[in-house]
Amino acid sequence: MDARVDAMGGEVTSSALVARVGKERRNGASFVLDVSVEAPPGITILFGPSGAGKSTLLDCIAGLVRPEAGKIAIGEDVLFDSVLRVDIPPQQRRIAYVFQSLALFPHLTVERNIEYGLTDLPDQDRGTRVQEILAAFRIERLRNQKPSQISGGERQRTALARSLVTAPRVLLLDEPLTGLDAELKAALVEDLRAWNALKRIPILYVTHSREEVDALGERVIAIDNGRVVSHGAPMDVLDAPRRKRLAQAAGFENLLSGTVLDLRGPDGVMRVKLGESSSCEIEVPLAHASAGDRVQVAIRAGDILLASERPHGLSARNILEGRMVSLEQRGTMCIAQIDCGVTFVVHVTPGAVRALELTMGKPVWLVLKTHSCHLVD
Amino acid sequence: MNSLGLSFELAGCVAAILLLVGTPVAYWLAYSNWRGKFLLESIVALPLVLPPTVLGFYALLAMGPRGPLGKLWIALFGHGLAFTFSGLVLASIVYSFPFAVQPLMVSFESVDQKLLDASAVLGAGRWRTFRRVILPLSLPGVVTALVLSFAHTLGEFGVVLMVGGNLTGVTRTVSIDIYDRVQSLEYGEANHLALLLLAMSFAVLCFVYAVNRRVWTPAWTRWVAK
Q1: Where does A3-240 sit in CATH, by number?
Q2: Of A282, A301, A291, nearest to A340 (Cα)?
Q3: Does the CB of A66 have a partner CB in chain B at under 8 Å?
Q4: Which of A77, A83, A107, A211 is 20 to 30 A from A351 (CA-CA)?
Q5: Considering only CB atoms, which chain A residues are within 8 Å of B118?
Q6: Can you give the pTM of this predicted structure?
Q7: Which residues contact B143 (CB under 8 A, 6 or more apart)?
Q8: Which tens digit of pLDDT belongs to each residue from A159-184?
Q9: Given this structure, which CATH class describes domain A252-376?
């Protein structure tokens, strides 16, 4: 058995999902996907740029795509094993999957859509289960509507309800919240969390949105180019990007190339000259490198401080003088570009712009903490 | 029985049988990954390009007392197949096959693959997915297939002439009847039948296009959508 019923009030706890998947290119020359992931009960986020292989991985786990190599299991229950030639068809895996397109049946009402996976149940049980999930996802009043008659957010709720009502052992979500505004998104995430607090099944949640990672994150697995590049808590995975594409996806607005000047082992830092011909030098955390190596440095626009005169008495080691070359207000945030030999993008609040009397061409100083400078390879 | 009644009976039988036989063939053509699929596709489309006389000629040979089908029929029922109503139905099925299979295949293929995936992960096997997702979403194709195979059988001439002969009440369909009357210079009678056939064909096509444009959905198709 993969699930056990708790003596206390019938709570069901699922086992972890373990998937090792090798999917070859059509010509068999190389793997497009070669990953090993484990998802314990709770939300695990699969994060990475589009085309990284996240959706293919979900398709393999659901049984819609057959990998060439690997093993997929929920607890002791093996769903796929390339060596033992086990391949359970998708309709017998009891894995729920919400696609990005949702794939609601257009000819069926919300209620019929939700009932779809419950045909084996007696009528009465089915009624109860449907009623329960309609209430949990707050879509009772939509039961007789067709998918084309309801809003995007309501469709997303219906798709989630349709998947969860079958009491799946694992839930796969492929960017299910795309296109929802922040408020609707938060409400839906809350309902999903509340549901899963009871059921405790593994949820694999695919996204390339940094915001969703912050909102949901318990565990993150970062995938790029068909490989797992890092995994762990969101802070650890996203704040120390080891790959350039991932750094861009994770919201590092400044991605600068430079040359290592010298290493200062005892201080745990090294000096890097940014750009080709500039005299702009910064101190970054020590890494496996030697003088003369080319490196990439990633810095968040929000991690950079701006000063209108040369600052004194700071712990921050990097103070760079530059000139403001552009300033643009976007919502409640101002995006400034500062030329220090290389151009930095800096986020400041409109209030700060007024207080510092920031104008075009005005000399400013950038303040960077050493540990806000991340090395990327 | 007059020739018009006979034509309707023939077209009705053929359309009904073709829906039953054509659906699995269309399903297979739509979803199979077999590389040799084009072979079956070509065979299915063959009656579209062959002169009806060619088809009728080989049908007649096969159904004759020394043909394989004819021999089988005699062994089973004690009488031959050529120049009988059954023979006519059989030949017409072959002749109208593409008119049933192609609309079905096209509408099966146009069902979003993600809906089929969703059905599978919700626990439905092939049959339930077909019954509850593919078929309801392919209703216009089903209606088109029914009506086109009916109408095409109603209007056939060459095949009937070859395998049916011209026996009043048994194999004399309306198109043969019209030809006969023209031959015997009964222009008034011929015009009467021809006009009727023209009007009905037009009505049938209006119906098909209206369903496909979703101007209206016939009530009798709704049971499938439940």
Answers
A1: 3.40.50.300
A2: A282
A3: no
A4: A211
A5: 97, 99, 103-105
A6: 0.72
A7: B207, B208, B211, B212, B218, B221
A8: 999 999 999 999 999 988 777 777 77
A9: mainly beta
